[in-house]
Amino acid sequence: MSSTVVEEYDRADRADRAHRRDTSHRARAVARALRDPRPLHVPRGFDPAMVDDLPEPARRWLRHAIAPGTLPFGAIELQMSGEIKLGSWRPFTATQALVPDAGFVWAAHTKLAGLPVRGFDSYSLGEGRMSWRVLGILPVMSGTGYDATRSAADRLAAEAVLLPSSLVTASWRPGPEPDSATYLRHLGRRVASAWATISVAPDGQLRSVSLSRWGAPHGGGYAPHMFEVTFDSEYLADGIAIPDRWSAAWIDGSRREAFFRASIDSAYCLLAAGST
């Protein structure tokens, strides 16, 4: 190997490590901004009667997913692994901090043509952002502004199901099918998220969540597209059954184009300030 090649390799390796540190720093900064301090007083635990007035499928799911007495967690940290479709399916690992009332940050690592790709997607303080680079040098995807923000807010609306306790106080109405219900979450005073529809199995396990999400799955301009995440299992943490083994897809008529598959490796629930 020539000295020139070695120098180029070392330069790329240093840039990748610097970008990795920068990505981790940015992800942690967003996560800290999202995570409120713990409340001064221990809040009231979950009582199944709290969901008496919700549509039956929502009651069935929440009573199944939240053990009586479980604290009203408002945030969750997840470690996950799976596959993401970037031309072909590629393995990834990721960490996510999720606060359904405020935002999320999802930081991940994968490889493209054998080269490391790192970056994050986030929604924080009313702004969506994504930043991904190969070797810490070459941008492969980045975005801010209206489209990135609206798409990230819609994603947050769907991912609220990953913390069922956050949906006890959501606005609910009956869904279009017998085993479905629809909810709406408001993100502070900045953004009202889209209505999202859940489908619930007879035993109370969550089957799917879907909504019309702002995006550009086929390239070109952004527009509303049907977006769906299905679940095949559950991960138990802190008295909560978290939907697990996800498959995310864009729906075009009868065609389902999956682009993301993941399973939870670990989960940690957190209280949020103002919990009562």
CATH class: Mainly Beta
Mean pLDDT: 83
Number of helices: 3
* Named CATH architecture: Clam
Assembly type of the shown chains?
Answer: single chain
Q: What percent of the residues sit in helical stretches (DSSP H or I)?
A: 10-25%
* Shape, principal axes of CA atoms: globular
Strand order of the largest sheet: 6-5-4-3-2-1-15-14-13-12-11-8-7
Unreliable runs: 1-20
Secondary-structure-derived class:
alpha+beta
Number of strands: 15
Bin the strand percentage.
over 45%
- Overall radius of gyration: 20 Å
Topology as H/E string? HHEEEEEEHEEEEEEEEE
- Examine the coordinates and then state which fold CATH places here, giving the name of the CATH topology: outer membrane lipoprotein receptor (LolB), chain A
The total number of structural domains is 1
Ends apart, CA distance between termini = 64 Å
- Biggest sheet layout: 13 strands, antiparallel
Core attributes:
276 residues, 3 helices, disordered N terminus, alpha+beta, two-stranded antiparallel ribbon, 13-stranded antiparallel sheet, outer membrane lipoprotein receptor (LolB), chain A
